[in-house]
Amino acid sequence: MVAPDEGNWLLQADELVALDSIYGPAFDFLGAPALPALAEVSDLHSQPPCPGLELRLSVDADFGDGDIRVVFVASSPEDGGDVAEAGPGPSSTRTPRSPFGGDLVSLRHLPPIDLYVTFTAGYPTDQPPHPQVCVPWAAPAAERVAEGALRDLWEPGLSIVHTWVEWLREHFLDAAGMSLGDPPVLQVPLMDGEDAGDVIGDLVGFSMRREMEDFDGMTHTCELCGADKPGTEFLRLPECGHSYCRTCVGSICTVNIKDGDLKALRCPQPDCARPLPHYVIQDVCPEELYEKWDRLMLQRALDASGDIKYCPNCSTASVQEPGRQGAPPLCQCPRCMLVFCSVCRVADHRGETCGEAVVRVGRELDQAAEAALAGEMADAYKNEAERAALRQRQAELKADLQFRNFLREEERSGRRLVHCPKCSVYVEKSEGCNKMVCRMCETLFCFVCGKEISGYDHFNLEEGAEGCRGRLFEMDQVWAWQAQAAFHRARQRDRAPPVADADRARASNCIQCGQVALREAGNNHMRCQWCRSAWCFLCRAGLRGRGAAKAHFGPNHKQHGG
Predict the structure, then answer these.
(1) Domain containing residue 117: CATH number
(2) Are 507 and 515 in contact (CB under 8 A)?
(3) Alpha carbon distance 499, 198 (integer Å)
(4) pLDDT (0 to 100) of residue 139
(5) Are 461 and 508 within one domain?
(6) Domain assignment of residue 468, yes or no
(7) In CATH, what number is assigned to the domain containing residue 280?
């Protein structure tokens, strides 16, 4: 590469110093292949002319005020074609499709536009610099349209980078054919091979992290104690957004866990009352108190579970074994090893119905009682297990009736219990995707429509079943997962130790959130543990979408080594 002359070199250094001063954290000087590491950008003035100076600027596009409503559109052949074929505008004519049942996704923030600039030897007097635009929520063709528009803005002798930044901020959406329209909705193309769940998860996660960063940087008043404190001393409940100081939330958890009142562990907002997530409770409670909460929650789950029965002999919780056709559902006590029926709580009565077993045991006890009264059998009442089974039969029948009423209510309300389409056993979804597996007969079926399926094709965004297309995950679960992930990442980021001197040579700041990642075993394909962004260690180019790493790395730009 040819180095710039002295005049252009000084102009390039002046522009970089000005950009650093204007944009601050949004500006990242990437150096040059032959340039030594510099403590400050201003040190360029003391260096000899060097070719290939590179920089990166993060640009927030202008979406106007309020939330950004996002919907996916199916990708078209133009999205991956040449600029001349793509042109601005094709995405605005496509049919919007959401990967989560057709609902629009409202976000407060979207990832910034990354502008990479490489200075040429003749810049700024004779040659324009080379721009590269990377946008996580736009098609590659839209990025190339923007790069062409940026080149057209340059004129000989003009220091252009600041103008490029402002143009991207104000005009990228129109130039790329992604204008918001009326009502304003941003249509994000879903490229071939991209998983809708991953893409929307990344966008939701970024928006939550940015909201948390904005919140931490301000002072707030706690509605419970009235104290004014910085955002870092508050807990912003991830799923509902209400915020209170850590001291107040910790006091709520401490008092109610000690009293055993788990239902009171909710958001204090009167019109909200959402349960506090377990990771929030763990964050504000001492280890001993959290372990007590965990034990109480386990006990409550055992009491509510239809698969847990208590031994009639020693009252130990026992797990119901999978039933077989024609056989009673049995439990074996792990403590006294008694095998008993989970329905009537009589000792193992295979070959009899529950009604027949209860009648038989009652008859045997009546006979034993008569024999005892007659003095013929002194040890007639030694079978305590069977006597306990009969004494608890009435309570068991009442509990079974309540559980059946609960099942019917759940089914009517369309909540979390559905019948397996093959064996009709009730199946509950606690979390995860809508592709269900019956534990009884191992049948695959859809939780949304209840029909038996063969795999993930049922949820395909374009060719899936009507009503289930794109609904492998529900949007409320994605928000909950990302809220939990954003909460943990923020806490871990605050506690992250500084990079050791021995690791500085393999350290690289994330291109999105700025957190430090370490290159492992010479692998130049970097991924941020905080925001899941991917980039190249050597040139810091963003790597987004399936196949991006394969297309980026090659013989002249190796993934390993360098």
Answers:
(1) 3.10.110.10
(2) no
(3) 30
(4) 78
(5) no
(6) yes
(7) 3.30.40.10
Q: Is residue 151 part of a domain?
A: yes
Condensed to tens digits (0 to 9), the pLDDT of residues 454-495 reads 887 888 766 667 778 778 877 766 666 666 666 666 655 555
Instruction: List, for residues 70-91, the tens digit of each pLDDT value.
Output: 777 665 544 443 322 222 232 3
The tokens describing 465, both together, are 């079943």
| Residue 245 and residue 258 in contact, taking contact as beta carbons nearer than 8 Å | no
Percent of the chain with pLDDT over 70: 71
Q: How far apart are CA 488 and CA 480, in angstroms?
A: 12
CA 525/CA 551 separation, integer angstroms = 12
Q: Do 316 and 300 fall within a single domain?
A: no
Between the two ends of the chain, the Cα-to-Cα distance in Å is 19
> Could you write out the DSSP letters of every residue in 5-68?
PHHHHHHHHHHHHHHHHHHGGGEEEEE-TTPPP-SSGGGGGGSPP-S--EEEEEE-----SSPE
Instruction: Label the pairing between strands 96-97 and 317-319.
Output: unpaired
Does 244 share its domain with 391?
Answer: no
Q: Kindly state whether residues 421 and 437 are assigned to the same domain.
A: yes
Helix (H/G/I), strand (E/B), else coil: 434 = coil
Smallest CA-to-CA distance from 542 within 167, 212, 143 is with 143
Indicate the pTM of the whole model: 0.53
**Is 263 found in the same domain as 333?**
no
d(CA 91, CA 145): 13
| Amino acid present at 530 | W
156 and 255 in a single domain? The answer is no
339 lies in some domain: yes
Structural domain boundaries enclosing 42: 6-86+104-187
Mark out the alpha helices in 186-307 (DSSP H runs). 196-216, 246-259, 278-284, 287-304
- pLDDT tens-digit profile of 270-303? 888 788 888 888 888 988 898 888 888 877 776 6
Q: Which two tokens stand for residue 75?
A: 């990708």
Residue 341, phi then psi, degrees to nearest 5: -80, 135
- CA distance linking residue 112 with residue 32, whole number of Å: 24
